[in-house]
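TEACHING EXERCISE
Course module: macromolecular assemblies
Task: Read the component lines below, then compare them to the predicted structure of the full complex.
Student: A.B.
Group: 4
Components provided:
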Amino acid sequence: MNETIAALVATVRDACAERSGTGAVTACADGGWNAGLWAALEQIGITTVAVPEEQGGSGGDITAAVAVLEVLGEYSAGVPLAETALLAGWLIATCGAAVPSGPMTAAIAGPGLRTRREDGGLSVRGTIARVPWARHAHRLTVLDNDQVIVLERGGFTLTRGTNLAGEPRDDLHVDAVVPASQVHGLPAGSPVSVQAFRSRAALARAGLMAGAARRALELSVAYAGEREQFGRPIGRFQAVQQHLAAMAGEVLLAKVAVESAALAFAPRGDADLAVAAAKVVAGETAGVVASLAHQIHGAIGFTEEHALRHSTTRLWAWRDESGNEDAWSEILGRRAVSAGTGGLWPLLTRTR
Amino acid sequence: MDLWSLEPVALPAELEALRTNVRAFLAGELAAGRIASRCDQWLGGWDPGFSRRLGERGWIGMAFPERYGGSAAGALARFVLTEELLAAGAPVAAHWIADRQTGPGLLRFGTEEQKQAFLPRIARGECFFAAAMSEPDTGSDLASVRARGTRADGGWRLSGTKVWTSGAHRAHAMIVLARTEPRTADRHAGLTQFIVELPDPAVRIRPILLLTGEHHFNEVVLDDVFVPDARVLGEPGSGWHQVTGELAMERSGPERILSTFPLLAAAMDDLAERGDQAGAARVGTLVARLWALRQASLAVAGRLDAGAAPAVEAAAIKDLGTRFESVVTDTVRLLSRVVPDPGSDRRLPRLLAESILHGPGFTLRGGTNEILRGVVAKELGVR
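Instructor-supplied answer key:
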């Protein structure tokens, strides 16, 4: 981690720690939305991290964004940084437009959305399912083939939904004519594609998972040190030590995987392969770590009273968002099989 | 926790040239039939001719300084070379221990005379070492060794029994860990490392055959073996410290994730031929994990290159990596539905048989997984 990123991470960590009551910074308003933390992150100037400064972004690269997401995941932070910076900010900036301030979210236009050119703009009608943080976003950006549509808050209604952790995942209903100034064409040869969107979204979730897994481990280590059974802390039992060490290995692997995937966005890398692998590994880690963390915490761990749930419900939710382990494995497996016996190793080493 | 400072490294671009050279060389060796691709060749593939050909190219002792016959290329270059050799299933066992641990150990703790006597020969692929650490009833509890070194005129006399010494019957020397002071409450004190040159009439070597019938391991009986002072490695009494440094080196390498890679690779063409889509998805899970493990292993190499000693990280990754090696075996076994056959002239049944029969060793050698998790638990503060 270079010094700039290390300093950034330390600042974000302080901001989260200041606002964390029960080891998490979610326990605020509706859907865990944390307006105070978002304001602090805006003040730090990282809400559009990895978006170039010329476009109104915070600057930095994807490695910086992933480092920040790991911290936010650790604190179960209720803010849409991944959506604002890595998706919406990226889409708008790639089109050469200025990136607005405020929380944003982003989605791919699915079959449920129809667009048609009209006088004065673009008619947009239909539904987009499960958009993260939509009810709190000032703007929604939609990737629709070769254009990016920016919907203002008043331009849609929504049906509230949540993921396992209670984070907003709302269905949007759009029936609006979006002015031409809010519809941006993608420049020729732009890196934006549905695949690239999915990769970024998956990397963001993997980064958050790496952080949440680390917190679940830390809570487990602490609990194993204080909870006594049979006259001694449960952490003195070898079986519990083995569980904790196995968790630590998984957490370490997930951390290195997501950070390696972020590095693969450099010109010589193969980001698609790297992100697919990182999302699979983070998903596996999420399962193992959440399960062992609950085993160690006993009955208290699966109550509303204990902070562990903030981390584990997110781990369970995020591993199924932006493509689960099987979805990304299938992509990797197809690439591996088509590379063939002689091509598998070159495929694995081509990222770096 | 220090564990979390482990970070991925981007390999410098100049190492791509090395990778390309090694790949071309290996393709030539395989095409000419001089070597065959097999699983677990860093334990089983003893081929002095191949080792010498690597030595001629400067591919042994890459981390040694030039004045001792090395190329001072560093840990990352050695990582690239090593992973290419293992991925190809090349026979590297002969020089393995000398290159991986004896050489670095001599560099750190050896006398100038010892360095000159051994390092250039190791780098040329002409001097192979065996590591004589374990004993009957020691296993992963290395501090319990009972082999004794007693003072003699101008040197030491060693007596005791060592087991699991790979290649002792063919090596030019072995490093023996022995107790040189009476055991005290500090079990780690009073151990010393000795360089015993082979053959020696006072060293009896008996094969301990593997499940495959292959002869790699030995029982070595030291019957009052004389070792001159000039062949004591490092400080008498500090053997434990020296050996644990060696183990950190031993645990962190790509050999802990790639023992069964030739089998995984061979499964690709099989799946393609049978058009097995569901199988491809399961293979994708393995590819993901292997990719991540490789990044982690590389990250440890990056730390070593920077002069750090990431022993705990190495332990955690070895635990994950060696369990993965066996998952590869099982997944390919179930997907290919091939009956394993060690004598088959077909690739898949043979590689599968090698992987299954060598499999029990993966999670034992270099410290059992339970011991490794103990190392990690200690770092976490619960042990």
